[in-house]
Specification:
alpha/beta; globular
Length: 219
């Protein structure tokens, strides 16, 4: 993975791939931590027992604790057992990115994304969509576009994906990694940035119109 989900950290973790720490609780390796407790005030300590799972620990402070799920790992019982037990928010690892969902212009494929989504909701998890507008992991056809044509392709992609999942996704990472690495604070040089400095605003306005109920995030 080249990108990091909001309020969290991913790392490659042996047989269990990557973990998204969505509640700003830090980084840990799946399977090696048996319990996490969230600090509470002295007055609350007597009534708030230590949580038995990561998700429950996050909920004690009004947060959620999520993980990235790869559809190809859903047949791994150890992987799914830990994910189901510990986490209450699921993000598709790569299955909802641009190259996966629109491999050919105007032709969408949600088979892998739906597999992750269906596993999540069948196990009582909320889903965070990732990601709609990004300079990376674009399919070849999108990489070949520029200017107004690329801008329209971005808009069409956001509409196509969000309409498929309308009312189902808790939050979307609408724009991903639009700012340069380092301390400059400037925009990243990318084909999307070359369409005009307002491309981020356009992406968010498009996403809001496509699904008024979803939370919209910059990652």
């Amino acid at each position: 993975m080249n990108d990091l989900p909001p309020s969290g950290t991913r790392r490659r973790l042996g047989g269990l791939r990557q973990v998204l720490i969505a509640g700003a609780l830090g980084t840990l390796v799946l399977g090696t931590i048996t319990a996490v407790t969230v600090p509470v005030s002295a007055g609350a300590a007597s009534t708030s027992a230590a949580a038995s799972t990561l998700g429950a620990a996050a909920q004690q402070s009004g947060r959620y604790f999520g993980t990235a799920i790869a559809s190809g790992k859903l047949g791994d019982s150890q992987y799914t057992t830990i994910a189901n037990r510990e986490f209450d928010m699921i993000t598709a690892e790569n299955e909802m990115k641009i190259d996966a969902t629109e491999p050919n212009r105007g032709q969408f494929n949600f088979s892998s994304g739906d597999r992750v989504y269906n596993w999540a909701v069948q196990n009582g998890k909320r889903v965070r969509g990732h990601t709609l507008a990004w300079h990376n992991q674009q399919p070849g056809w999108m990489q070949s576009l520029s200017g107004g044509t690329l801008r329209q392709a971005m808009i069409d992609h956001i509409n196509g994906v969000m309409n498929h999942y309308k009312g189902k996704i808790y939050a979307w990472d609408v724009v991903n990694e639009a700012f340069a690495d380092g301390n400059s604070g400037g925009r990243r040089s990318s084909n999307l940035q070359s369409t005009g400095n307002d491309w981020i605003e356009v992406a968010f306005r498009t996403a809001r119109a496509a699904d008024p109920a979803a939370k919209l995030c910059y990652n």
